[in-house]
Amino acid sequence: MSEPFPWELGVHDAHCHPTDTMASVSDIPHMKTTTLTIMATRGDDQDLVQQTAESYSAQSKADCTDRKDRIVPCFGWHPWFSHQISNTAPSDLQTKKDHYDNVLAPSPVEDQAFIDLLPDPKPLSELLSETRARLQKFPTALVGEIGLDRSFRIPGPWTEEELEKRNDQVTPGSREGRRLSHYRVKPEHQRAVLKAQLQLAGEMNRAVSLHSVQAHGALVDVLKEVWAGHERVVLSRRKRDKQRDAECADFEDEEDATTTPNPFPPRICMHSYSGSVDPIRQLMHKSNPSDVYFSFSSLINFNGAPARKIADVVKALPEDRILIESDLHKAGEELDALMEDVARRICELRGWELRHGVQLLADNWRRFVYG
């Protein structure tokens, strides 16, 4: 018989999407999972995440211990929907057709029916302004879900059969089982949308949740761009001790100094990390000025993935950089079950006693979110 799960220690879902099924949100107060870190991904769910946060979110670090405060909201634009964002300067007027010709591959200019199905693009400046306002409203909010994805394709138009089967409780805007078209968002456009959101996270001093599919190398390149000129100096122990003494002596002067925001987020979560061990070494290099965490889910990482690969990755990480998540599209008992499952799996792989491991994971989440 398995050991009872220690929910009382606090279990925090680092990445989930319950606003994709708004009917499930009312289950949140009755869940065993302590906190849900809820992602926004597109135009259809930004307001829904905000509404849910207004009902259940923690407004300060201390509040997260209160069972009534169950949500940390996250606002961002997912790479699957990055084609809906225009990065053109306001002076360079574009038609809708020109925009999608520039950001999609292959060019859809000969497919007017497909272009007609797509929304009018939102200016990147408008997206950043709206996200900034939401982050200001919620002092504990994160930026997410953002990232890069080389494998996805834009869904095609609804067929009559798909419409008949559509679940009307699901928030519009996602794939929802539709057949995929052959159109993809160009990598350079995804990178521009991602980089702007990373810089906003730096401006607001917020952590981010990153999506990366078949794009770990490209993602590292973007991070290096925003880190450039801000790398940490890797010192010997003797030099670190000297620097610490000097910093203590200058502490009062530093208190009065004006701090310029960094162009990169202070903390990063690689959500449902599916890469190998090698990118971890790049992302965890001591010179990187952002602290990088890695989150794992049963749905993505333990559902058909090679057991040896995920075991090697989990074992290679420092214990204080591991997070757990559900990545589920609804709240309720299923999410609780996924959180218990992934916590038990991580503890088993790391050789942690269950209570010790669950406490470590809770501490890691608090440090990732609040610093």
Short structural summary:
40% of the residues lie in helices and 13% in strands. It contains 14 helices and twelve strands. Strand 2, helix 1 and strand 3 form a beta-alpha-beta unit.
* Main β-sheet, spatial strand arrangement: 7-9-10-11-12
According to DSSP, the number of beta strands is: 12
Structural class: alpha/beta
Rg over alpha carbons? 21 Å
Q: What is the residue-averaged pLDDT?
A: 91
- Per CATH, which architecture? Alpha-Beta Barrel
Helical residues, percent = 40-55%
The CATH superfamily is known as Metal-dependent hydrolases
CATH fold category name:
TIM Barrel
Shape: globular
Q: Describe the biggest sheet?
A: 5 strands, parallel
Which segments are poorly predicted (pLDDT under 50) over 5 or more consecutive residues?
251-257
Distance between the termini: 38 Å
* Number of separate domains: 1
What is the top-level CATH class? Alpha Beta
What is the helix tally? 14
Question: Which H/E pattern describes the elements?
Answer: EEHEEHEHEHEHEHEHHHEHEHHEHH
Query: Strand fraction band?
Result: 5-15%
InterPro entries: Metal_Hydrolase, Metallo-hydrolase/TatD-type, TatD-like
Protein name: Cut9 interacting protein Scn1
Region (Disordered): 244-267
Biased composition (Acidic residues): 248-257
